[in-house]
Amino acid sequence: MLAFQYVGYLSEFRIEFDRPAPVVVSGLSGAWDLNVRTETAAAEALAIIDPMIEHAVAAASYYGSVGRRISLHETLNAQLKDVLVSGRGGLTDADMEDVAAKLVASQVRRDLALVSLSVANGRPEVLLSLFR
Hints:
Layout: E1 2-7, E2 12-17, E3 23-26, H1 39-122, H2 124-130
Antiparallel strand pairs: 1-2, 2-3
Helix pairs in contact: 1-2
């Protein structure tokens, strides 16, 4: 019987198999105690070590793909930040242009009102003729 169990990230790695006496390899330290002096013992040791290698390769592949996804998210977030900053700058510029246009329009209205008042004060008869 061969049992394989993995708990946590390198915290607990157990492989159990039945021989004349059950052997538990926990972590990698127990792997050094394996008997490889006979062909049968070497085959049993390979049966223990091969799943460890497969698990290590699978874990490296998994963490590599997670690292790649994190890198892609970092790139995407940096691009989104750049777009948001430039968009906010564009909105601020657009608002300032709108406010500047309104300011110029109000200054023109004020100037026209001042000209109208000066004409009305200078020639009141022209103003009165408009109401006749």
